[in-house]
Amino acid sequence: MDSLKTAFLSTTTTLHPIPSKQPKNLTSYISCNSITPDPWTLSDGNNSYKKQKKKPLSDDNARRIIKGKAKYLSVLRRNQGSHAQTPKWIQRSPEQMVQYLKDDRDGHLYGKHVVAAIRIVRNLATKTQGSYNMREVMASFVTKLTFKEMCIVLKEQKGWRQVQDFFSWMKLQLQYQPSVVVYTIVLRIYGQVGKIKLAEQTFLEMLEAGCEPDEVACGTMLCAYARWGRHKAMLSFYSAVQDRRIVPSIAVFNFMISSLQKKSHHKKVIFLWRHMTDAGVVPNHFTYTIVICSYAKEGLLKNAFEVFNDMRKSQFIPEEVTYSLLINLSAKQGNWDKSLNLYEEMRCQGIIPSNYTCATLLMLHYRNRDYQKALQLLSEMDKIKIAADEVIYGIIIRIYGKLGLYDDAQKTFEDIEKLGLLNDEKTYVAMAQVHLNAGSIEKALSVLELMRSRNIWYSRFAYIVLLQCYSMKEDVASAEVTFQALSKTGLPDAASCKDMLNLYARLGLLEKANAFIVRMRKDLVQFDEELYMSVMKLYCNEGMLKDAEELTEEMRKTASFKDSKFLQTLLMAKHGESRIIVNADESLAASKQPETLVLAKADNVGNAVNQPNIMALKMLLSLYMENGDDGKTNHIVKILLQSASGNVAKAQSIHELVIKLGDRPTDAASASLITSYGRLQQLKRAHEVFSSVAEFLTSSKPIYKSMIDAYLKCGKPDEALMLYNEMIKKGIKVDAVTISVLVNAMTSYGKQQESENIIRKSFQEKHELDTVAYNTFIKAMLEAGKLNFASRIYEQMLTSEVVPSIQTYSTMISVYGRGHKLTKAIEMFNLVSSSDVSMDEKAYTTMISYYGKAGRSQEASLLFIKMREEGIRPGKVTYNIMMNMYASVALDDEAEKLLQAMEKDGCSPDSFTYQALIRAYTVSQKFLKAEETIIAMQKKGLCPSIAHFGYLLSAYAKHGLMKDAERIYGELTRAALFPDLECHCSMLRGYMDYGHVEEAISLFEHVSESVQPDRYLLSSAVHLYRFAGDELKASSILDYMNRLGIPFLNTLEIGSKMIAS
């Protein structure tokens, strides 16, 4: 094992030149070739070389060519590293040269006698055991090999028998000295071939010889045990090593935990990990990867993330498999946000996800019903060329099925078959489920039949889907056969039993249904609430009162149904009270106590269960009507009427009933019903209620108000405006709240003119407006850009003696600031400061923002300090505005201090904060700090965007540092951030300004087809092609610009900054 070699076993000695202050000459140093794969003739050590005069060269450039070639060879040798084939000369002193000649190496790693010994012992592998005598074979080498050379011969052997025989001969030599080093060599070779017994005997021999095992020897034995899966012996030996207070190296620990993990001994991996950290052994990348995997396999998410965080703190970048395991484990434990954050972090590191990771995330989005993100992930997979496998295709089919895109699901299924990927039973079942949800029972059955014809065995889940098909098809015989096959795989699940029971009930096969219920109870099928409800429904419809009561009692004694609304409603309706068993252990004690202690008394029927289960009440109603129990029938009807409160559908039924009886519902009731439908996005039902009371609408302001609100919530602003105008025509006075809601909605839908008309009309009609209404008006006109009108609204507000709020003042500061009336904005701010109105962060932030836009950074800084002195804690938006202000005036030092203050306040910097800091550095020409900021972002889990790289790219290009600009441009692509038009233009501008014509043309041709036509991009191309003499291409692009109506830029110049630079 190379990782366990000691310094003593090093095969070569690096010879360094002896430093000397005197000039170098041939008498003090001899120049010779170092050991390389090329054979070189060595000097004899005598200075017989006579310097000859240089012959005159016929060509003056010949000397330059020779020197250039020598320089090229030097660079070539340096770039080739340790495997250089070019001559490499070193200097040796005369003493070193004499020793070199004595060794008689002739370009080999070892002397000739050592090489011969290695070859002779190796050749013994061709002979059978016992056919040779090692003493006779090695007779010529007695006294010629030193102890170190014998160790070298031993180390270079390939076969364990040769090692055993040579080691036996070696111990007979006078030069032999018992050493842990030689024993370690033997242990390593025995361990490599699996001769564990011999290795153990050798180790015991080493102890008997008085050699104390060191870290390397113990590590060699541990690795041998690990290599061949002798884990029990390995751990026992490790305990002995611990007793001797020997700490193995990280390489040995890695060998052990890797071997344990391959056999799924994850607990033992964790055991060794804890011992390793306690011993102070520093883990490496491989160690972290193995341990995180073991924690993940054991389901210990918290511990896995602790090790993962330690790995990141140690500056190790996790592999894709590590991210994949943590993403999958987080998803399984319901920590979906953590899974998505891990994926984003992985992509920021430039790691390409595997199919397994993508499949996990797709399934996560599928379960969350977030199909938009699933489609985005599929699009990203296509961009980074990740080929979908059968699992991913199966998830895609499920997603299409949920979205109702049945044709797309079928097409995907056919594509899988064409690609030859259709092998998994789950894919067939997924397609069958899609057909089943679409109501295409025959297609679902054909898919399952296709699976059977291809000799793919049905799983339990496949039988469940097949049973659903036959149940929907109402094929009793096939359903019964399928249910029997399902029963052979284990106890049937509650959902399959419900399907069979509902099938019998639909077809009126009551005898079979009753027999099936008896069989379920006999087989001890685990009932869920839905199965109980199906059985109870059958009993109630058939008037089986006794069976229904027995079933209710059985449910009551089941601890898992103690919180069931269905059960509590049954008990409430039957007894006028609710029996609640706290846990299963109380059921026995309850049977021995008086009825009054078992029942939880209720003050009235409505208080027993706040929201009764309507299905349970309907079942009981059917049961009592079937049995002719009028008293209990009336009792259930009464409960149903009381339960209508809060139920929109029931409320509408009662609403319609009142109208049919010729009475008028109250305005509050109608308005409440319309509001409820608006909240549920059911505009049609809301309009039906509105139309049903239309003849009563003369001055009913609440109903109009609710209907306007419903229109707006359902995205119908035009209809809401029409209803508002209808109110005005009918002379119905509109309140301030309705006007505010309407103006705000029109503004959010981009209908600024309609907002202005409503505002003007409210002033004309002299409606009573409050502070909120005026604030809404001012803000609407601010967003519409009608700043003068916004100012007049404020003046009208003061005239009407409506008290402004802090929101009013903040909005007016924005109005004046946007209108470049900074003086008035300052006056407004000072007015608020001197009044009794409490200032908030927004007012300060708005004022700071406009100070910054006006270039008055000093005033902005003072105001920021004042804000903090007032006890107002700046938020992230305020900090970002300050950062941008400092960036615009190149105050990068102030920006750094602000970032530190932000972190000290507990306000985490976001992407915009770092973007402003990068901008500050680039404006100050501190490009290295800008790059360090991007790296710091990534370490904190924030993904840089194109804008972050764009500032740096533009700055490099502007100052002619095109190599750095090209490097940043390449990093964008590696980070899966495709450069936008602005990046392309920055690179092109840099190339043009500094005369890099070929690079500029190459860039244009590379990006021209992938970006939208741009004036600067196309104009630059025309100038570049003209400069390069390609008038044909220049004319072609110019004609293209003319056809699109894009004006040509004549002022562009190539190399305009070359002189300045």
UniProtKB/TrEMBL annotation:
Residues 261-409 form the PROP1-like PPR domain. PPR repeats lie at residues 179-213, 214-248, 249-283, 284-318, 319-353, 389-423, 528-558, 700-734, 770-804, 805-839, 840-874, 875-909, 910-944, 945-979. It comes from Coptis chinensis. It comes from the Eukaryota. This is PROP1-like PPR domain-containing protein. Belongs to the PPR family. P subfamily. SUPFAM superfamilies: HCP-like, TPR-like. Residues 41-60 are annotated as: Disordered. It holds the Pfam family PPR_long. Keywords: Repeat. The keyword Ligase does not apply. The keyword Repeat applies. PANTHER family: OS03G0856100 PROTEIN, PENTATRICOPEPTIDE REPEAT-CONTAINING PROTEIN. Gene3D superfamilies: Tetratricopeptide repeat domain (1.25.40.10).
